[in-house]
Design goal:
Radius of gyration: 25 Å
Structural class: alpha+beta
Distance between the termini: 19 Å
Helix content: 10-25%
Number of helices: 9
Number of strands: 21
Mean pLDDT: 81
Shape: flat
Low-confidence stretches: none
Order of helices and strands: HHHEEEEEEEEEHEHEEEHEEEEEHEEEHH
Strand content: 25-35%
């Protein structure tokens, strides 16, 4: 793609434009990929008037980005299960459906566009489902992704164990864009998982101390969620939070919640002495949330089922809840999207326990230095090259090509 772009910009190697760095071309390609996805996803953004899956071409354009994300429920004991969504109690009282409850689930960290939502529910078969509320206390550690030195990325993250000894929970050679690796749960061990936010609760609805639900981390930071361990038999699990001790990790790390090693990509870790360590002394953030655990032993008609959820706008949700034909019921679980959450609305005859999301994920950034190419289907590459060339020419030749209008007219 780099060769094709250089040929297009240079007018077949006439050298009218020079000094195009590989990083600049990578940037333009990645911008073109995002525009390409937006145009193919929305029917209003292309002259064909067809959005995603409205024609075979549109299906093939974005099929490589289609993903499934499943949050399963947890069985506590025979006849008793526990949901994974944050429970907010009664958020509305409908004259036709009674109490309306909300379960909140986090969107996947590589989420871009939503396709559909399904939910695993307990259906009471026209009988209210009894449940108990379980309290959970999550811990999130904020980690800065850079040192201020251009080119350096996180190569290793170490957290102390119960003895205060540092153990590696993340390590990479930096072959991809660093944020893509840092937000990929596959790169973590010992139960640690990455997150874009530390807040799971609906803070600004129930507390005047919170100014926002879930501040989404920018590209300069992310949050590391601690795993849970059972400290004593029969007691609720607790987050595995420890600090390094002098005896376990050395005096220079005493009191640290984590040690982050930064280095340049594609080199052996700290082999040339360029590695730099950052000690995290900032205490983890605490997120309090409640989940519902239905007890179906008292309702022999209750059953587990998976149902398709219905998308609703925020300004329509309460009017629909008051409509006897469209209100919340086991066969009509409605959802809204807010920040990086999906909120599911249900009545007392059904409880959403888990969620399955089909979505288009963010594309992996093209990076020639790290040998990462375009992951969209091969038949789209020539379109991306044309979009990139025209965008570069516009910036050089003031403007020779009107990008937005031209791309809409020429999109295939």
């Amino acid at each position: 793609m780099h060769i094709a772009i250089n040929l297009g910009v240079q007018k077949l190697a006439s050298f009218q434009v020079d000094n195009l760095l590989p990083q600049e071309i990578d940037h333009e390609i990645n911008m073109a990929i995002r525009r390409f996805i937006n145009q193919r996803y929305s029917p209003a953004s292309n002259r064909k008037g067809r959005g995603f899956e409205q024609s075979q071409k549109r299906m093939d354009d974005l099929r490589n980005l289609l993903e499934d994300y499943h949050v399963p429920f947890e069985r506590i004991s025979e006849g008793e299960s526990r949901g994974k969504g944050s429970f907010f109690g009664t958020v509305y009282t409908s004259p036709v459906a009674g109490q309306i409850f909300v379960e909140r689930f986090k969107l996947p960290i590589d989420y871009m566009y939503l396709i559909n939502v399904k939910s695993d529910i307990v259906d009471g078969c026209h009988i209210p489902v009894s449940f108990k509320v379980v309290n959970t206390e999550d811990k999130f550690l904020r980690i800065r992704t850079g040192t201020g030195i251009p080119g350096q990325v996180i190569r290793k993250i170490e957290v102390p164990n119960v003895e205060g000894v540092l153990e590696t929970v993340f390590s990479t050679n930096g072959l991809r864009n660093n944020m893509e690796e840092l937000l990929n749960p596959m790169y973590y061990s010992d139960g640690f998982t990455p997150s874009l936010s530390f807040q799971d609760g609906l803070g600004d609805m129930f507390s005047d101390m919170e100014i926002s639900d879930s501040p989404v981390a920018d590209s300069n930071e992310f949050y590391l969620k601690y795993p849970f361990v059972v400290v004593t038999e029969g007691t609720p699990p607790e987050a595995l939070v420890h600090t390094a001790t002098t005896a376990g990790a050395g005096a220079e790390y005493n009191g640290a919640y984590a040690v982050v090693t930064y280095d340049y990509p594609l080199v052996e870790l700290a082999a040339d002495g360029s590695g730099e360590e950052g000690i995290i002394l900032e205490a983890p953030y605490t997120s309090l949330k409640e989940t519902r655990a239905p007890d179906i032993r008292n309702n022999r008609f209750a059953r587990f089922r998976r149902t398709l959820c219905k998308s609703v706008q925020h300004d329509d949700i309460f009017a629909l809840l008051d409509d006897p034909f469209n209100t919340a019921k086991p066969s009509n679980i409605m959802y809204t999207i807010q920040e990086n959450f999906v909120d599911l609305y249900s009545n007392n005859k059904s409880i959403p326990l888990g969620i399955t999301i089909k979505y288009l994920r963010k594309p992996i950034n093209v990076d020639l230095t790290a040998r990462v190419g375009c992951e969209l289907a091969e038949h789209t590459h020539h379109e991306l090259v044309e979009m990139t060339v025209k965008s570069i020419l516009e910036s050089f030749e003031s403007p020779r090509y009107q990008t937005q209008s031209g791309e809409v007219l020429e999109s295939e």
